[in-house]
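Translate sequence into structure tokens.
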Amino acid sequence: MLRFAVPKEKKLSNQAVYTLINHAIFQFGNSLSIIFINLYLWRLTESLLVNGVFNVTAILSQVVATLVIGKFAKQKGHLVIYRYGIWLTALFYLGIVLTQENMVHYFIWFALFRGVSQAAYWLSYFTLAHEVSNHENRHRYLGWNQIVMGLANLVGPAAAGVVISINSDLTGYSIVFSFAFLMFVIATIGSFQIKEQGTHHKQYYMKYIPLLLKRQPGFGHSLIGWFIIGFPQGILMYIPPILLFSIFPNESFVGYMNIVFLVVSIIASYILSRTATENGTTLNVTIAAIGMLVSSLILFWDISIITVVLFMVFNSFFKPIQANTYAVYYYTWLDALPLQSHFRIESVVLREAVINMGRGLGVILFMIFSTEINMQTIPWVLAFVLGIQMFIPLITKEKRKGSGTYDRTMGSS
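Result follows.
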């Protein structure tokens, strides 16, 4: 039975609420356009290879940028980097509006710029997510995070699909990208409502990673988990919309279908935010892994509107269960690591770098076997990348060791 009364210790702080609201604005701008960037490239080139190169370049540049930006975030403050991330994202979409169809000639540069802007934003946002939540309410915060993202994503693609459909040629795309730029400007202004928790520890502890992994090998295994989780995400960022568009070439249809998928994600996130406990981590990720694997088997029957929609419905339900549960599991490692919260930024840098390496490798794997729409190989690739999610429950069974006290042998500042 679901309980609707929220215990005091699980209630979110004002800063947590401000962070969620601003993230919703950012995500609304993203949702207006992120699906349609890939469709935009598809309309201009009709090449999965171009889409694949764009996505893998953006993902891998995000890996490199995350590792570089992490040091600046530690020394200058992650809130500063957070604002830079939002503003750089705004400039990315402004660049698309200005270049319009010529964007295809510079798509590699756009991919690189996107990677840097996303690295700055997500590194800072996940650091803030840990900072404004605690051990008692983190499941609740991440559940609401998924809900507000879902709500933002619910309206964005549908509205963008309608705008694109009622305008001739590619004019609708320019209107959508312009409105996305405006949303990021608003998010930049809203970021000044968020206050950073001060810290005297400015030293960047990445040089202690080998020693840390030696003392806590389970932490290294938790990073492998992020790599596995990221493996299918890179592919699912752009293949489902293109599949749907190829079967039924109408942008508004893609937008409406995205509403269905997001409603499913919101329901799953709400249930998780109400019922999840740390003791249920392994059970939750096991259910999610099985559900995601089963979803891929649907595509072996046929690749049609019905099967692709069913595949995405299954994934939309189980993905937030897996991602939110594993994020909480990963965050609890900070309580067991010697440096605790002083390793907050470094832990997010590692997470973002590893999950994006997984995403990039997934896209590369897909490009090797399916440079164009290939109905025979797509189910096999998806079944493989979703099948390896079954390793995630094995990782979460590991017990964390150590008292979590600060270890001065690993440095201080």
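Note: The chain has 16 helices and no strands.
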